[in-house]
Write a structure and sequence with these properties.
Structural class: alpha/beta
Strand order of the largest sheet: 1-2-3-4-5-6-7
Order of helices and strands: EHEHEHEHEHEHEHH
Bound molecules: pyridoxal-5'-phosphate
Number of strands: 7
Largest sheet: 7 strands, parallel
Helix content: 25-40%
Number of helices: 8
Distance between the termini: 21 Å
Oligomer: single chain
């Protein structure tokens, strides 16, 4: 997936013309503006930013996959919003794999309970897990966190009795290690678009 936050719609269109179809965005308003401009392009949009429960209504039904469900409160808000749209919303649960205070995600102890709740919601479709390991500037140091997310997905599949499709992990600096550890979705911004412009 190409992470297009802060990049203008014309940059997204340029990659789309080269065959890129999956794009990731972090901010609802910014993303909806771009989606409107690019409505003629058959793109798949991913939401990868922090999502507040009170913005769930703006996100449900507008993204093919929301990667950042990390609380029961947010899951319930999305469930309600997707119910209004009348279509199930595909989601991933974000795990705070490095136990970093400043990062989103649920700590791994809370994962089984949240996953069971989400899997039981009529208008949410649980498709896997997402993580953002601590930043070391040395990609091999991210590898154990990717391995751990894969193990958590395997454990969860047993608990839920259901297959999970996706592991969303790896960014520009460490997508090789992430793929080697089983990523199905890598989130690459800088390597595809170049440096990010300032926030618009
Ligand atoms: C910005 C962002 C990325 C992309 O980061 P790059 O280092 O530019 O590839 C990936 N994932 C998330 C959650 C992001 O916010």
């Amino acid at each position: 997936m190409a992470v297009s936050k802060y990049h203008p719609a014309e940059s997204v269109a340029a990659l789309a013309r080269l065959g890129q179809g999956e794009f990731g965005e972090n901010y609802i308003q910014e993303s909806l503006v771009k989606q409107g401009i690019l409505v003629e392009h058959p793109l798949r949009w991913h939401f990868i930013g922090h999502l507040q429960s009170n913005k769930a209504g703006q996100a449900a039904g507008r993204f093919n996959l929301i990667h950042t469900v990390d609380s029961l409160k947010l899951a319930r808000s999305l469930q309600k919003a997707a119910g209004k749209v009348g279509r199930p919303q595909s989601v991933l649960i974000q795990v705070n794999i490095g136990r970093e205070e400043q990062k989103g995600g649920i700590p791994e102890e809370g994962l089984p309970e949240l996953a069971q709740a989400v899997a039981g919601m009529e208008f949410l479709s649980l498709e896997g897990l997402m993580c953002m390991p601590p930043f070391f500037g040395e990609p091999e140091r991210a590898r154990p966190y990717f391995t751990r997310l894969r193990e958590l997905k395997e454990e969860l599949q047993d608990i839920l009795g259901q297959g999970l499709t996706h592991l969303s992990m790896g960014m520009s600096g460490d997508y090789v290690q992430a793929i080697e550890e089983g990523a199905t979705l890598v989130r690459v911004g800088t390597e595809l678009f170049g440096p990010r412009p300032d926030k618009p």
